[in-house]
Amino acid sequence: MESVLQLTNVTKSYRGKKALDNVSFTLSPGKIIGLLGSNGSGKSTIMKLAAGLIQPASGTVTIGGQLVGRETRAVTSFMPDQPLTESWMRVENAIQYYNDFFTDFDAAKANEMLTFMKLNKTDRISTLSKGMNERLQLTLTLSRNAKLYLLDEPIGGVDPVARAKILDAIVNYYNEESSMLVSTHLVHDIERIFDEVIFIREGKIVLQDEVENIRITHGKSIDEMFKGVFGE
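^ that's the sequence the OP posted. Answer follows.
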């Protein structure tokens, strides 16, 4: 089975400090994978590399066997930690913007998700709460028919009700033929959706395994393992 995302011996530095140090891992299709680490561990750097926003100093990043570039960006749907929409837009403008910009955007799915998320098309984005805005960004991201979905801290800073809605939407609307990589340090709230997890600390991968294996082998939840590894 061909990998969706593969990092091979990837190193990336910012101002002389290594953000990633010889990182290698492979993601298979049909899985939701948690990229777990504390702030500054290298999670966002991996996300930006996979999205094609930055290039590695050394090593390779491939999607579907292709080096990340123009072709792979067309099959990668990225939800960054900062919204891509403009504050002047209404919800319906944001949907139209994505529909115009991305050929794989599914407007029918987007409208179905808006109902599920309890978002009104006429609402101005500037008036949305952080939780509602996260719901909108997730709707836009998941409404593309991509091979790889990248969600960078999708539940950061939102209230528990919004978190639950966001996680339910991921499970309900995730395309099972694709891969989804979700970065977070809020492990307790989100671990129920993961098939597999990658622990990253100080730019190095310290664990990659299936969730069931971890629970059976170590007799611990992912949150307990995370606290043991990161001392949180």
